[in-house]
Design brief:
The chain has 13 helices and 10 strands. It is an alpha/beta fold. It folds into 2 domains: 4-214, Spore Coat Polysaccharide Biosynthesis Protein SpsA, Chain A; 223-334, no CATH class. Strands 1, 2, 3, 4, 5, 6, 7, 8, 9 and 10 form a 10-stranded mixed beta sheet that branches. The longest helix has 25 residues, at 252-276.
Length: 337
């Protein structure tokens, strides 16, 4: 069995995938790199096959009809043989020094005492920005040892684990039966949220491992793109709401973390709908909050009556303008994306 499976979803990635894959190759034969060519129309398939031929003990390639980011991750999970699983998007890359430290830590865990999730830092590699923002967790988690959710410190709103910071133990993904929606953007929120409900043990390595490339033209996290794809954001938001059950989540700190993450995602959905501003957008915002209320009255009360819930419910056109302005201000102060 390989130590680590790294899934690289690729769709028309010819212009940047080499940087990603080259950064992963130093893992050697401890690692399998699973390149999933998700129906690309450019030279992605040929580039992937060239890597497979050159590194047959390390690189595997899956070609499939286009199924979207979630479908590509699903295919990778179905074929992964590693004890741990990591997803690296094809326009991102990893830091070499941190990579070696990550692999050393994974090797050091006894087979019967591997943590459910390994957390590391990630860096926003934003186009045109010299100063890089690093998301670290050193103030809220013990370092260099396995710990439980009960030992997690206070996580500020907006400081949560993205897909970029997570390496799962394979057994956790099997236990939760994760299947991501196909042809849907923003499923990385589901990947970073649903399996955490099943985790009991964590390990934090304070290294700046993942380099998150942001600002590329047409990227799915750009605001205008997100507003055009708001139905997909809302679909993911609703799935997260459905997954949250406070009665089955063990421990107050895990429950608080999962609640805060869901609150931020719901705030983002609501603010994007307010930013859209049409009657249809406002209707969809009402429907989202009604869905939360119908699904879980306790959750609705927590989200609606918190500061962020009040923030996106200021009445009238003036209130909506204030809500959007305060949302942008909150993004800057709190630091969430």
């Amino acid at each position: 069995m390989k130590l680590l499976s790294i899934i690289v979803p690729c769709y028309n990635s010819q212009d940047y995938m080499k940087r990603c894959i080259d950064s992963l190759l130093p893992g050697g034969t401890d690692v399998e790199i699973i390149i999933v060519n998700d129906g690309s129309l450019d030279e992605t398939a040929a580039i992937a096959e060239a890597y497979r031929r050159q590194y047959p003990e390390v690189v595997r390639v899956i070609h499939q009809k286009n199924r979207g980011h979630g479908g590509a991750i699903n295919a990778g999970l179905a074929n992964a043989g590693g004890a741990f699983i990591k997803v690296v998007d094809s326009d991102d890359w990893v830091d070499g020094t941190a990579y070696r430290q990550i692999l050393s830590a994974l090797k050091g865990f006894p087979e019967t005492a591997r943590p459910d999730v390994v957390i590391s830092n990630y860096v926003y590699e934003k186009e045109g920005k010299r100063r890089k923002m690093v998301i670290r967790y050193s103030r809220v988690m013990p370092k260099g040892r396995v710990f439980t959710w009960a030992e997690l410190g206070h996580m500020p709103k907006g400081r949560y684990f993205l897909m970029h910071s997570i390496i799962y133990r394979r057994g956790i993904l099997d236990e939760c039966g994760l299947q991501l929606p196909e042809h849907t953007f923003y499923v990385d929120n589901l990947y970073a949220y649903i399996p955490l409900h099943y985790t009991r043990t964590l390990y934090y390595l304070n290294v700046d491992f993942y380099r998150y490339h942001i600002g590329r033209a047409g990227q799915s996290v750009q605001e205008g793109v997100m507003i055009r794809r708001i139905d997909q954001q809302l679909f993911v938001n609703r799935l997260m709401v459905s997954a949250f059950n406070p009665e089955t989540i063990e421990g107050k700190r895990k429950r608080r973390y999962l609640l805060n993450y869901l609150e931020i995602v719901t705030l983002a959905s609501s603010a994007l709908l307010l930013r859209g501003g049409t009657a249809e957008h406002l209707r969809k915002k009402r429907e989202l909050w009604q869905y939360i209320r119908d699904n879980n009255e306790w959750l609705y009360s927590k989200l609606r009556h918190g500061f962020l819930g009040h923030l996106v419910h200021l009445p009238g056109n003036t209130g909506r303008s204030i809500s959007v302005s305060l949302y942008y201000f909150s993004r800057q102060v709190v630091g969430f994306n």
